[in-house]
């Protein structure tokens, strides 16, 4: 396997939730360190994408990962923030990244993820959900010229803010619909999910990036674990119904971990064959999406994690168990290590 960066993404807690809460409500640094050891020793990753909102959690995780010998790709996320707040948050993370870089050079900075939908002001919409809905109505991707112009203007600002503090390599996580000017960046970073609409041209379009004069890293790719998830790609989580007091599956779906395992194996093979510099599975763990024996309560099947979460009590500690995809990825990543 030629992938230099064999990675997985790790969410330290992102303010995705409707009430502004973090996707990891409870934080335990010892638990995090144990999960990083599993990522290194059991999943055989060389690299980890560390993302989230809280600066202290980002710092703790990045420091622990570097100490454990992992390459770190650090990424701030501040959902629904305006341009100035987003840039201010990025500046703080860039300062953190530079402090870590002076002690250990194995760190990169990713200035953001799919900002046309995660940040306010680039596309119309009062919030993330409205912007996603608008995206679904656009007549053709990539984004219209207006949205692309706004995005690239903002990314130039983001790169300038990051470079004022951080002197390592920069990238960005571009959505499938975003037309990015990569001049301000050292690495082309793609959130490159495969789904029904792009399956036929998936490799052909990837080659448009690998033929450029910069390394290409797939900073996100993934799949959920139910029949039909491979066709849904990054929209698989939309089968979760959040209207009640507890999230549940909205409809009848059949859990199938092999779907996830097969999709990830296929994509890793493509990246290896096409000379991609690195790839990061989305994602290692999702504590907010627990597994249940009841299919209507099994929101884990609609998530993208490589491990399933089991709660003994709703808000108490959890334990995790590897899914089929965990073993598949570990075998592929471990083959290079051997």
Report on the architecture of this protein:
The protein is α/β, with parallel strands linked by helices and 338 residues long. 37% of the residues lie in helices and 17% in strands. The protein has one domain (5-235, 243-297, 312-337): Glycosidases (TIM Barrel, Alpha-Beta Barrel), CATH 3.20.20. It contains ten helices and twelve strands. α2 packs parallel to α3, α3 packs parallel to α6 (145-165) and α9 packs parallel to α10. The model has no long low-confidence stretch (mean pLDDT 94).
Key features?
10 helices, two-stranded antiparallel sheet, eight-stranded parallel β-sheet, 12 strands, TIM Barrel, alpha/beta
Looking across the biggest beta sheet, what order are the strands in? Answer: 5-4-3-2-1-10-7-6
Main beta-sheet strand count, sense and barrel state: 8 strands, parallel
Element string (H = helix, E = strand):
EHEHEHEHHHEEHEHEEHEEEH
Q: What is the gyration radius calculated from CA atoms?
A: 19 Å
CATH superfamily: Glycosidases
| Separation of the first and last Cα atoms | 11 Å
State which percent range the strand residues make up: 15-25%
> In CATH terms, what is the architecture?
Alpha-Beta Barrel
Would you give the CATH topology?
A: TIM Barrel
Number of helices: 10
- Apparent shape: globular
Question: What secondary-structure arrangement, pairings included, does this model have?
Answer:
Elements: E1 5-11, H1 29-41, E2 47-52, H2 55-67, E3 71-76, H3 83-103, E4 107-113, H4 115-118, H5 128-137, H6 145-165, E5 170-173, E6 188-191, H7 202-210, E7 216-221, H8 229-232, E8 240-241, E9 248-249, H9 257-273, E10 278-281, E11 307-311, E12 318-322, H10 324-337
Parallel strand pairs: 1-2, 1-10, 2-3, 3-4, 4-5, 6-7, 7-10
Antiparallel strand pairs: 8-9, 11-12
């Amino acid at each position: 396997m030629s992938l230099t960066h064999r990675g997985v993404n790790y969410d330290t807690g992102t303010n995705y939730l409707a009430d502004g809460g973090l996707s990891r409500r409870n934080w335990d640094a010892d638990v995090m360190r144990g999960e990083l050891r599993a990522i290194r020793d059991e999943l055989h990753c060389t690299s980890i994408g560390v993302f989230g909102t809280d600066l202290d959690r980002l710092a703790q995780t990045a420091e622990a990962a570097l100490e454990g010998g992992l390459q770190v790709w650090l990424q701030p996320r501040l959902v629904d923030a305006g341009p100035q707040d987003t840039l201010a948050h990025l500046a703080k993370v860039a300062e953190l990244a530079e402090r870590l870089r002076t002690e250990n050079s194995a760190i990169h900075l990713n200035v953001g993820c799919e900002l046309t939908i995660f940040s306010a002001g680039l596309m119309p919409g009062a919030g993330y959900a409205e912007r996603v809905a608008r995206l679904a109505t656009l007549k053709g991707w990539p984004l219209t010229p207006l949205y692309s112009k706004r995005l690239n203007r903002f990314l130039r600002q983001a790169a300038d803010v990051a470079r004022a503090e951080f002197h390592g390599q920069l990238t960005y996580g571009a959505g499938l619909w975003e037309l990015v000017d990569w001049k301000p960046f050292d690495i082309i970073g793609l959130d490159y999910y495969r789904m029904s609409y792009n399956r036929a041209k998936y490799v052909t379009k990837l080659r448009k990036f690998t033929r450029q004069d910069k390394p290409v890293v797939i900073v996100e790719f993934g799949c959920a674990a139910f029949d039909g998830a491979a066709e849904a790609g990054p929209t698989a989580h939309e089968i979760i119904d959040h209207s009640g007091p507890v999230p549940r599956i909205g409809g009848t779906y059949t859990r199938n971990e092999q779907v996830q395992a097969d999709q990830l194996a296929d994509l890793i093979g493509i990246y290896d064959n096409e000379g991609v510099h690195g790839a990061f599975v989305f994602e290692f763990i999702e504590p907010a999406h627990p597994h249940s024996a009841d299919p209507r309560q099994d929101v884990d099947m609609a998530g993208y994690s490589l491990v399933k979460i089991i709660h003994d009590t709703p808000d108490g500690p959890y334990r995790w168990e590897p899914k089929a995809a965990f073993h598949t990825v570990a075998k592929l990543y471990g083959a290079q290590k051997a």
